[in-house]
Structures are given as C-alpha cells and as structure tokens.
Amino acid sequence: MSARLKVILTRRLPDSVETRMRELFDAELNLDDHAMGKDELKAAVARADVLVPTITDVIDAEVIEAAGDRLRLIANFGAGVDHIDIAAAAARKIIVSNTPGVLAEDTADMAMALILAVRRRLIEGAALMSQGDFAGWTPTAMLGRRLWGSRLGIVGMGRIGQALARRAKAFGMQVHYHNRHRLNVGLEEELGATYWDSLEAMLPRMDVVSLNCPATPETYHLMSAERLALMKPDAVLINTARGEVVDEAALVAALDRRALAGAGLDVYEHEPAVNPGLVNRPEVVLMPHMASATQESREDMGERVILNIKTLENGHRPPDRLLPPMA
Ligand code: 8YV
User: Fold this and answer.
1) Per-residue pLDDT reduced to its tens digit, 37-46
2) Which distant-in-sequence residues (6+ apart) come within 8 Å of 256 by Cβ?
3) Looking at the whole model, is its pTM more than 0.90?
4) For the chain, which domains are there?
5) Distance 221 CA to ligand 1 centre (A)
6) Contact 212, 156 (CB under 8 A)
7) CB within 6 Å of ligand 1 — which residues?
8) Which residues are tagged catalytic?
C-alpha cells in the first residue's frame, strides 16, 4: 500500500470531520486552533501533500513559493477563495478546490435574517427588552418597514443569491437581480426574479440590496461611494459576501448623512477589525461572520473537502477544482 497522503488542517474542524480525516489520511491537526502565521503556513506547505486552509489563512504567492514538490492540492474549507492566490498555485501545478453549494442555504438564511433584523428593528427591540425599558404598546413605537411588496435587489445570483431569492419570494418581496450572466428564463420564472443588466440602473429602485457575489478584483469596492449614493435614502444594504465588496468608509459616511437607512453586515473590509463608525448604531446590525456557522454546514463542508482529496488520491480531478482567472 502506498503511503497515506499528508494532509495538514490549519484550524480545528468538527470532530467527525477530523476523525474521518485521520482514518483516511496522515492528517495533522491544529489542536489549539490558533490562526497560523505566514511562517507556519510556509512550513506546512513545505511538508504537506494537501493543505486544508480556511478564510483566516492568507495563501499568497510567497506561501505558495514555499510549497514542497509534494504539495498537490489546496483544499479550502469554505466557498470563498479570495485569500488564496490561485494563479500562483496553478503556476506550480497545485490544484485549488473549495466547498461550494453546501453552505448556500445557511448563508441565505443569514441574509434573510439580516433583512428582517434591519427592516423590523429586531435587535433594537430585543435590547429594549433586555434593558427593562418596555413601557407598554403604543401606536407609534418601534416602527420598521414592511417586507411584503418591497423590492430586493440581489447582487450576484449564484447558489446563495438564488437561495435568498426563494426565501424573499416567500416573504412577498419583489426579487430583482444583477449578475454577470442572466439566468435562464425557467429559473428566472421560478424565482420570480427580474434581471438588471446595469447595477447602476437597479440600485435606485431597490428597498433592500443584498450582496451575494464573490470577492474578486472586479468586485472590489463594487459598492463604492458613487454606487451607495445611487441607493434610496430609505433603503438598506445587506452584506453576507465579503467585506471588500463594500467601501466601508463610504458606507459609514452614507449612514452618517442619512443617505442610507441602515445596514446588516456579516463580513467586514478589514476583518476581524470592524470600522468603529459601524458599531453601536441602531440602524446597523452586525454579525461576526457567522452566515455558514451551523453544525450541518461545517460537517458538509468537511465532507466536501474530503471528497476533493479522495478524488485526487484516486487519480481524478477534484470535483470542486477552481480554475485560475484568465490572464
Ligand atoms: C466560511 C465563508 O465559514 O465559505 C465562505 O466563503 O465565507 C464562510 O462562511 C469560511 O470561509 C471558512 O473558510
């Protein structure tokens, strides 16, 4: 029998995933779950056949340069791969894979929860109760905005965007979307979604804008000061994608001058740092990057990672292999 693959996990994964990894591979775990620094990552890629990183690991060209000849796969635990230099990996013939699909429903739940939380002032209401400040019902207290009949603009209509569209439709929202490619007519009909070729044309018409696109050089600061200014003053922005898609300083400035009614954010431009201008504002709901944080999602992500490694081990192309951006 040939030697087992040396698989290095950069963070703790669910017990069941780690156990399976140890059954199948020569798996090296990160038992105290510290975030690895650059030197530790370089040492890991130097001796591994497969690296299993997460969003907290910056796998840049320098780290990939340090890879040993045996490194064949970087099997990311997560869907977004903006922390990995896929082109540098491809140049060294190292495959990069991710875990698409398995976290779409949970992420869409979080986007929907943020829409509800911001539009119906859920966190404000809960805070009022926990402070013992409920003085009784009044006709004008804690008024939010109705979801039913309001317009949701989804930016990025992949699996997560589509899962959000299904939820929003059930809440009676009118679903609109902007995407690089238009969906086929059947899917558009099923989702009840209206396509906008131009993001600039869509933004001024929406009550809620939800970001569901990946972070790429093209989507960096997609929500710039100029595009934020196109939104209606009573509209809100929801971000469960990546912080870099929004110019966070411009978002704070828009909220400050009430050019935007609120925001619901799960991700931050300089994560884990949060722009102080976003904190402690009643109209802003902040979450600690937990959209995919369910036991089921984490286990499914682990299984997807294992599938990619096993497929490579069996001499086939990992199903979630990512291609480098076109030069
Ligand atoms: C993951 C995410 O938890 O998968 C993604 O892209 O943003 C998160 O939900 C994280 O990336 C794990 O690496």
Assistant:
1) 999 999 999 9
2) 277
3) yes
4) 6-102+295-322 (3.40.50.720), 104-286 (3.40.50.720)
5) 19
6) yes
7) 54-55, 77-80, 103, 291-292
8) 242, 271, 289
